[in-house]
Amino acid sequence: MATDDKGFNGDAFYRALETTVTARSTTWKQVATETGVSASTLTRMAQGRRPDAGSLAALSAWAGLNPSDFVDAPYKGVRPEAISQISTLLRTDPNLDAQSAEAVEAIVKAAYERLRKTDG
After folding, report:
1. Please, what are the averages of pLDDT over each run of 10 residues along the chain (120 residues)?
2. Of 33, 35, 48, 120, which sits with the fewest C-beta atoms within 10 Å of its C-beta?
3. For residue 95, what are the domain limits?
């Protein structure tokens, strides 16, 4: 991460945006059209460049992402546990019934427990 980035992880933001594009079965061209963000900006983001403030705002609104979730800085407040956020999102997803949400949650929890960093 560059020293002048104020802690913003543009790569993680792009990956989350890319996941949204895939989940919605849309194209980057459609994203550009719907958000007004140029295709060249989206291409530069794929190559590791950070978007300008207006593009960040438009893409965040389109994808339902909170840009502050991608900031890692000492001034940032305490975050809720990632696994609890995932659980909440799964249980409120209109595309999943309760049983399906529980199944996906069990898979994610198992993988998370296996892969998470520990202090030991």
Report:
1. 68 95 95 97 95 95 92 76 89 93 95 82
2. 120
3. 82-115
